[in-house]
Structure formats: C-alpha cells, structure tokens
Amino acid sequence: MLPQPYTSMDTHRVTLGCFVLSALELLGVLDEVVSEKDRKDWIEWIYAQQRTGFVPATTANGKRTLPHPVEGIYGFAGGPFSGRPYFGEGEKAVAACEYNVYDSSHLTMTYVAIMTLVLLGDDLSRVDKESILQSMRRLQLPSGCFVPCVTDYQPDMRFVFCAAAVSHALNDWSGVDREAMLSYIRSCQGYDFGIAQCPHQESHGGSMFCAIAALGLLGGEALHDQKTILEQQQQQQQLGLDQAPLEAQLSRVGLLDKEATIKWALMRQTTGFQGRVNKPTDTCYSFWIGASLKTLGAFEHVDYDLNRGFLFETQHPAFGGFGKWVDTYPGKFLRVEHNVMHSYMGVAAMALMGEPGLQPLDPLLNISCRTRERLERETVFWKKE
Amino acid sequence: MSDTEASFFESQQWADVTPVPQDDGPNPLVPIAYSEEYSTAMGYLRALTQKNEISERALELTKMIIELSPSHYTVWYYRQTLLKALDKDMTEELEWNGEMAIEHLKSYQIWHHRQVVVDHLSGKLLASEGIDTSSSPAETEKKSRSPGNSVVIPPYSTLPTAFQEHLNTLVKKELDFIAEALREDSKNYHAWSYRQWVLRHFGHGPWWKNEFSYLEDLITVDVRNNSAWNQRFYIVSEGPEDLTEEVIEREIKILNKVKHPISEVKVFCETLIEQPRANFSPFVHSTLVDIYEEEAKRSRDEASTNAEALEKARASVTMLADKVDTIRAKYWNWRKSQLQLIAV
C-alpha cells in the first residue's frame, strides 16, 4: 500500500506498479519477491483496466462484434478510478461496460499496462489489439504527433514514444502513420540538434529519449540523418554518379544531424546528467539521456565513474531508493511520484552501465533485455505458430 | 476530512446522489491509502460522471478534486465541458487557474486547461463581434481528427481596430501571467510552451515585437538562461518579420550587449583562447573543433590548408580531452581518432 501523498497519481496507478515491478526485475528478484498468487491477481487487475470496443464471443461461430467502433478510445486506463465494476475475468468486464468518455483509456497507460503484463509473465492473449490500433489512428494528429486520450489532449513527444512502443509490443504498425511520425520527430530538432517535446521548444533530455527510442523501434533507416545523406549526394554529384531520389531518402530518416545530436547529449554530462542546457543534474537524466546515447551507439563515451558516483550520492542511506538530487529523499519531494519514479530511473541508469548484479536494460522499450526477449518469443502477437 | 468538506456533502443539494465507491478487486496492484476527503469526493464524482450531469454542483465538485489531485486526467475535461455548457465566466476561471498554476508549476494539466479556457474565450470574443471563424477545408479536416482543435482567428491586420484592442488586452494579460510564473521558475517548460502558443494563436499582433525587450531583460538577469535564448530564436525565426540583414545585425548586437563581442564565430573563438581564462572554456574549444574539422573536410584538395586545419583541430581536441573537459575524455579522444580519417 502506497502512502497518502501518492493520491495525486490515482489516475496513473499502473505506472507506479510498472516502476516497482520493473525495478525488481532489473535487480533480478522479481520472481522471488512476487508470489504466484499476487502475480495472477495483478494480471487480472491490469486486465480489469482494459477498455475495449469489442464484446466477447456471443455469436454461434464465436466471432466478435464491434458495438461502438467510432466514438470510443480504447486500450488501458491507469486504474479503476472512474467507478467501473471489477470483474475477475477480463471478458465479462468488457460486456458489462458501455463506453463513457470519463472511463476512457490513455495511451501511456496502454504502453505501461502491456509492459507490466509481460513482466508478470502474461502472454497478452486478452489484449484487444484491434481496438487499440483503431484508437491510435484517431489519436495521431496531422503533424504526426499523438494525443494520449480524449479527455487529456495535449500532444507532445511522450505519446509518440508510447505509440511506437505499443505498436512494437503488438507487432503491428498499422495504427500509425510512420512517415508522419518521422516528420514530427524531425520537426522537433532545433538549432542545437537536441530534441524538444514540440516544434520550436527547448531541447530536453526526456523528449530526446522518447524520440530516439521511437526511431529505434521504427527501425530501418529511422536512426540515420539527413546531413549524411546530403553529404553523400554531394560526393556522388562530384563523381558524376547517378543519384537516388533525394526527397524519398530524406523522408525515411528521423534525424537532421546525428553527430550533432550525439554531441548535445554527451555535453549534458556534468557528473550525472542535466536534462537541458544549464540546468541542475538530476537522477532521471542518467537514464533518459543514457538510454538515448545507447541507442545512438555512443554510450561508451560517457564517464561511467562520475555518473555512477552521482547516482550513489542520491541514494538514500536508510530507505534505499534514489532521489532526484543529492540530499533529497522521499519526504523531501515536491511531487511524490519522484520517489518511485526516480528510484526506478536510478536502477535503470545503473543497468545501462552494466552494473554487476543488475539485468541488462533494453534502451528502446525501457524493460530488461530478457523481458523484451520474452515479449518477442512468448506473447501471442509475436509467437510463431 | 475537514469540517467544510464534511458539511459540503451533507447539504441538501447532494441528497439525491448515491456515491459510487471505487471497485478495486480482491488484490489490486499498487493500492493507495487515500484520504477520506478524496475517497468521499471521488464517490460523488463517479456518480455524476456516469450520468454526465451538467450542473453547478458538479462544477464545484471538480474544483475540489482538482485541488486534491491536479494531474487527474479526466476531471479537467469534465470541468471544461461544464464551464462551456453552463456558459461560465471564464475570467473568474482564469484567476483560479492562475493560483493553481503558480502552486503546481509542473502540472501539464493545469497549463493545458488554461490554454483550453483562453482558446474558448477568444472564440467567444470573435463571436460577440460577429467575426467569422469558419475555417478552411484543411482546418475542418484537422478539427475532425484532433480532439484538441482550437479557434481560428482571422489575420490580425484584417480585424476591426476596436477588436484588435480587445485582443491586445487579452494577450497582455496572459503574457503578464506567464511572466509571473517565470519569475518563480525562469526555465519552466510548460510556461514557455504556453507562451509560444499565446504568441502564435492570436496572430501577428504587436506582442511579437514586445517579446524582444522582455527577453532582453531575462537574458540580462541570467545570460545562461537557455530557455530565454530558445525563445529568442523562436521569435526571430517564426515571428512576423522577415529574416533580413538588419534583423541579423540586431541579434548580433544583443550578443554585444551581454558583453561578448562577436564578429565571425571562428575569429571570435580564436581571440578568446588567447585570453588565459577563456582558454579553459570547453565550449570555445568544442566549437573550434567542429569548425576546423569542417574546414579540413572541405579542403581535401589543398594539402597545406588541410594540414593546418587538422593541426588546429588536434590542438583543441587535445586540450579538451586532457585538460578542460576530461569528463568527456573518451569522446574527445574518439573525435581525435576521427580526424586522422580526413587527412589528405
């Protein structure tokens, strides 16, 4: 049971669960700490937060029908705060609930719920893929960015990442206009080649993670840059060689100048990392920027000793867990989610550096490498028949 | 629960409502020890949202819950629906929202709510003046896809003077409010994001020009305020004026004002490293490495120029790796190894 200050996270509860379980997994003790009964109960609890447009098999041939295909936004909610009744078996819950806008899903919660289900050993067989994909098509804007849900509709890079991660988990990108997504990510790179939440905003380590991880999940040429293409084009021109159509090439890559983006990220190391130019060093950026550098293939340039030293300084001597800054601890936070969130981020940042005793971390999905392997081997959307 | 809240729900106006408790199942993940106050208020909220009740009491209730849990992701929307349906006074709403925003500077929802309210207010202003807000087909398409569509304001120069005055007042009020928030935290991402929206949403009015002096003030107070520099770039590159020679000249003058004479970047940096203190600046050397490396790449046909550029690049990169930026020694040594590849 989390203490009262966590009330402000009531609509995001599944996120807290994910941080805690994922940290235990990185520490290698998840199976040891979580009993078989809890594991099963929590899987049921997460499925109870699923909102779906389908009613379960009711017809003779077992085919499912879609009662409200258009108006709803489906996926997972962060908790049962809207007042929907709890059902032990997911399918019954679906039949019992009509769509209500105040009971809708949230794209971040969908990403987090799916990752948590995989962490707990579920095979995702009850995840309603079609409803989620259909909703994602409605959540993507013409700019290529996403809003997370109907009731909270401010678009930014966070939801681009969530859409990419959900598409990967479902092994189906048909819910996303990928070209528009790439274009949006490019539009958020400014004059310093860092990456912002929205076009024209200040470059930020958190939005950098979201963008770079999305590019990594998109795969193909997404992590390449336009500067390199233009340089190659120029060289070919000088040599009088035939050139591939430029526009098409440029539209397939997600970065403007990869070397400059790497440099921006490396320049953020002070001891740990700062999230923006001239901002204080903060635990979570050792993860956000560290993971970005890992994906960009430049993590080996980080000074591990200083980064590790900073992270250890923020660890609380009695409670354990990592704080946001040195000398901060649970009671000192302005926002309580920093307890659980920063503790997870601290562990995740250590895992990126291959800290002995920690499971290796996948810098794209932000789960342990072996959890990602399990996702791609044992869940229904990936399993080879 | 405080006495006020207890009596709030005991009053006659709630007698017809049966609170709906949260059903968390037998063994939930991450249960929270809610305060009694929050649980009670949420019980009533669930009852009202399940019927989508539009009423004054619902509006009061949303306020109570928002104050207990400001990042709740559906209650704000309920409040927005209620405000519009009940045709409430949006000025009053902005006052309350302002207090909340200063108290919770880092809440996405509070700042977004302000944007929704101001957007609605601008639409109402336009309608009261009988100004056409019907949008182009492209805009309509955008609206049908986006739940967060906003009012489309006709170009500023085409608006009646009296109405321009209305907009000037509204925009000034918002920019003043944001400035107040930025006094609390001059790098607040939400405040800057909302500031860009205000500048952009209301079109090409006089506020773009005023923004220059505001930013000069911020930069004078803290020359390292990167958020202010980013905003400066935004208004120069996205504002109503063209990027002319004069504009570029003026921007360079700003740099003079902050006591960094600047002519051409390379010459400027080279002058700096002659000075004992600046010779220890990683930023100066880092910029020079980039410049010399580009020079070396471009002079592949001229051996002497290439060799000279490479030599200078090596000098700066060595300085960085060994002395002034040792935290990135691995990176700079890698950059040094890359320099070998462009030697002719």
From TrEMBL, chain A:
The keyword Metal-binding applies. The keyword Signal applies. Residues 2-367 form the Prenyltransferase alpha-alpha toroid domain. Its cofactor is Zn(2+). One of its GO terms (molecular function) is metal ion binding. Keywords: Metal-binding, Prenyltransferase, Repeat, Signal, Transferase, Zinc. This is Geranylgeranyl transferase type-1 subunit beta. It comes from Actinomortierella ambigua. The gene is PGGT1B.
TrEMBL record, chain B:
Pfam families: PPTA (PF01239). The keyword Protein transport does not apply. Gene3D superfamilies: Protein prenylyltransferase. Its EC number is 2.5.1.58, 2.5.1.59. It is an enzyme of class 2 (transferase). Keywords: Magnesium, Prenyltransferase, Repeat, Transferase. One of its GO terms (cellular component) is CAAX-protein geranylgeranyltransferase complex. Its cofactor is Mg(2+). GO terms for molecular function: CAAX-protein geranylgeranyltransferase activity; protein farnesyltransferase activity. Residues 130-151 are annotated as: Disordered. Belongs to the protein prenyltransferase subunit alpha family. This is Protein farnesyltransferase/geranylgeranyltransferase type-1 subunit alpha. It comes from Actinomortierella ambigua. The lineage of its organism: Eukaryota, Fungi, Fungi incertae sedis, Mucoromycota, Mortierellomycotina. The gene is RAM2.
